[in-house]
Specification:
The chain is an all-alpha fold. Helices cover about 70% and strands about 0% of the residues.
């Protein structure tokens, strides 16, 4: 558990450009808007029957889920998807 926290702390301590910060803020804001419109509940309902696909796509739920191999602009979305997907599986 401490390894995950240490990794998160290291990632958050890295410097971020203004453009990168605005991009991340925009992605978070878009997620907030989609969640408020009800898309989050619909997406979550489908995880029950595709949990095997989810686990496979997220490197068998082993952190960092294979997201580190993606372009930097896609890593945050991948991490949030896999973190949510794997937490549903218990």
């Amino acid at each position: 558990m401490n390894d995950k926290f240490d990794e998160l702390a290291k990632n958050m301590a890295q410097s971020v450009t203004r453009r990168g910060a605005l991009r991340r803020f925009g992605v978070g804001l878009a997620g907030l808007v989609l969640a408020s419109l009800g898309f989050a509940n619909q997406a979550r309902a489908g995880h029950g029957h595709v949990s095997g696909q989810c686990k496979k796509a997220c490197n068998q739920c082993k952190y960092p889920y294979g997201c580190d191999a993606l372009p930097l602009s896609e890593q945050q979305g991948c991490f949030y998807y896999c973190n949510g997907c794997c937490s549903l599986q218990g």
